[in-house]
């Protein structure tokens, strides 16, 4: 089993600690948190080993799980890489694109594997239809959340929208051509509501909306492509797949048939992919262990995490124009 240590024992850090402790792919060595009062409380309550020194923890493990505030991601990851440790790092990968690029180069130099915690890639609803999303030409996403002070130290784009940015980049096989966006600060000092339009070189257009001051939670994405419409509800873990094919010459009484202006007839039919329940956070952590053990590419690479961050920062920059 891989020896793992966790940096950060906040809300998400405690979830990681619990899951790593339960996993049969890792041996949880302990954790480090600069907040000594919180750290000792977590150690007492759950029995995890608390390291008072970050270097001591890193020296005792094979993998460093970084679940700290975004501003400290780079320093923590750099220190781990220099010690030859594989890194799992929560999203966004770093605070700046320059930091992410430096981590990429360091990881290659030290032959280190890294994975970024874009957990929606492991959402069972998304997994059930990902292979059915083929060359989408229009994508619409809504990620709305009720207000929570946690996370408001960064713009809503880095807090919420980046989940959808990463998911979109994973299914659109094309480079970004143009970005237009607007953001509004309502409660926080950084934007709480944002809308972005991303145009890709292949003609695909993605329209993304995120808010952290909504009255209800929503995490939905819709993908439109030739002869298909695919809807993914990340929150409710439901999918809807509507497809079209050439209509049979003798349709049945209950067949849904559409005819276009040219007289072509199409039959509408529905698919119901099987959604297998899972723990997405546990899956992302355990697939990373498999990538290390089998020397394969992690599901969400440092390169992909960097691309998602670069697009997110372009959106934020677009607010100023």
TrEMBL record:
Q: Cite the Gene3D superfamilies for this sequence.
A: Dihydrodipicolinate Reductase, domain 2, NAD(P)-binding Rossmann-like Domain
InterPro entries attached to this UniProt entry: Gfo/Idh/MocA-like_OxRdtase_N, Gfo/Idh/MocA_Oxidoreductases, GFO_IDH_MocA-like_dom, NAD(P)-bd_dom_sf
Q: Which GO terms describe its molecular function?
A: nucleotide binding
Q: Where are the transmembrane segments?
A: none
Question: Gfo/Idh/MocA-like oxidoreductase N-terminal domain location, by residue?
Answer: 2-118
Q: Can you give the residue ranges of the GFO/IDH/MocA-like oxidoreductase domain?
A: 156-216
Q: Which Pfam families match?
A: GFO_IDH_MocA, GFO_IDH_MocA_C3
Q: What is this protein called?
A: Predicted dehydrogenase
